[in-house]
Amino acid sequence: MFELAEVSVESSSAGFKIRRVPEHLRTENVRAYEPQIITIGPLNHHLRRKKTHLAEMQKHKVLYLKKLPQRRGEDLSNLLQRRVEDLSNLVRYWVTMRELEKRARCCYAEPIEMSKGYVASMLLLDACFIVEIFRKFKLDLWDDDDNVFWTSWVRQKLGRDLLLADNQLPLFVLQEFYDITKMPEDEETNFQDLILGFFSKVVLLVQLLKVAKIGPF
């Protein structure tokens, strides 16, 4: 997610690509290098099938994507018209990710053995979740479906997982999704502000828990 280098499709350099943690480091402490509550991007995608505790956040990804059109004020009064409009916007989001799919593949240091459509869908779900969770932290947009994030240890682990070296999306994917889903309340901020706002709160929370000697830090 925080790979800042713009990697072109034609580039053959692996110097600025998202890569797995070397095996000799991972085997020394597997838990230190694996996501604990959420997988992001293709390199850890397989873990969702092996570790059932990662499935809960996958449900939140789908939920956030379903709710996004309504949150953007695209819920028209006529129910049928609303559903057609919602579907149209979801298709538009997917098409945007599909257009970025080839470029996104080039940001990883190993081949991604997934179909173009599957990668586009993965980018869509993951980008939507990250952008929406950053918005919620920045703008305090929580609702009843977000009660899991009111728990301090979940917030801490979420921040940790989003910083893992191989649990990432290219930054331009997130920026593009943010741009095509901008809301009126986003006008006074930018995506970099959302990133900093989220991690400043998570880091502050971890520091406070350390001082209070709460949690496994």
UniProtKB/TrEMBL annotation:
What keywords are assigned to this protein? Membrane, Transmembrane
Please give the superkingdom of this protein's source: Eukaryota
Protein name in the entry: Transmembrane protein
